[in-house]
Amino acid sequence: MMLLAVISALFAFFAVLLVVPYVTRFALRHGYVDMPGPRKVHAAPVPLLGGAAIYAATAAAMLLFGGRSSLSIAVAVGGLLIVFIGLLDDTAKAKGYEFPIWPRVIVYLTAAFVPVLLDIRIIGVSSPGPGGMIMLPEWASVVSTVVWIFALTNMINFIDGVDGLAAGVSMISSLTLFLTAVIRHQTDTAMLALILFGACAAFLAFNFYPARIFMGDAGAAFLGYALSLIAVEGSLKSATLITILIPMLALGVPIMDTIIVMARRLAEGRGLHKADNLHTHHALMRWGLTQIQTVSFLYLLSIVFALLSIVLLLAWGA
């Protein structure tokens, strides 16, 4: 099974490498580009639509090598919804106007219900003591799963503001969740995590500074969605109090950034969904770091979180 996971990851890796140049040319030819602006760190138009390549490679690899499992279908169907609305958002961005928030919220919530319908959901908390599994009521199971998926779908999108940041952090997180799945003998989640790692690694070749293409909202939201599925099906489905921390730490950078930004927006009376320059990468660049230094620092922080999650798993949660 491990060999199949490696082959599927290589498939996703080379699929992204092959598809991205075609997507780049299409985006340039038809004007799907992200223009420079006050909140942007790039000085020239950059093609969007990279997220379509990431989704296509990931979904194809899961369906080809993972079969028609619940996880494969959730990635393909829910991911398609995420990418569809993301591409509409990216199209609006390319045309110079703001895409409304509510269509995205509705579609993200709909996509978050797809795994629930396939029985991929948080079902309870287990403990090593005599109490055994504490089962959540069905409504609490559904709500907690949908909230987690919806939140993480947005969190990766929030950090996608510097060349290579979202792809690199997602690559580190997916590798961490892969190791977690291997330790816990979870084959489906291990495969998806390694596929995501391969897709992100290939995309990073085009997206690291200076980026030749952006993943756009479609790609960033899809990565958050896929990572949330791995966490639910892997660590959270029937978690112990310790293993609940594992995906939290594996995804520590986007979670930390979201908490900081939301707290500051609330403190300043701003709308929670309004774009601004309050993110961690913006702060680091205001302090004088270059794009590469900013991304490298956040990669390092993500690796520290990842190592801590693995240590916790080996010590108490395996």
Order of helices and strands: HEEHHHEEHHHHEHHHH
Rg for CA atoms: 19 Å
Mean pLDDT value: 88
How much helicity do the residues have? over 70%
| Helical stretch tally | 12
* Major sheet size, sense and barrel closure: 3 strands, mixed
- The best one-word shape is globular
Q: Largest sheet, order of strands side by side? A: 4-3-5
Oligomer: single chain
Question: Helices and strands: which structural class?
Answer: mainly alpha
Explained architecture:
The protein is mainly alpha-helical. Helices cover 71% and strands 4% of the residues. The protein has helices at 2-30, 50-66, 70-95, 101-117, 138-158, 165-183, 187-207, 216-236, 245-250, 252-267, 280-286, 291-317; strands at residues 33-34, 46-47, 124-126, 133-135, 238-240. Strands 4-3-5 form a three-stranded mixed beta sheet. Strands 1-2 form a two-stranded antiparallel sheet. A hairpin with a 6-residue loop joins strand 3 (124-126) and strand 4. Helix 4 (101-117) packs across helix 5 and helix 7 runs antiparallel to helix 8. The longest helix has 29 residues, at 2-30. It starts with a helix and ends with a helix. The model has no long low-confidence stretch (mean pLDDT 88).
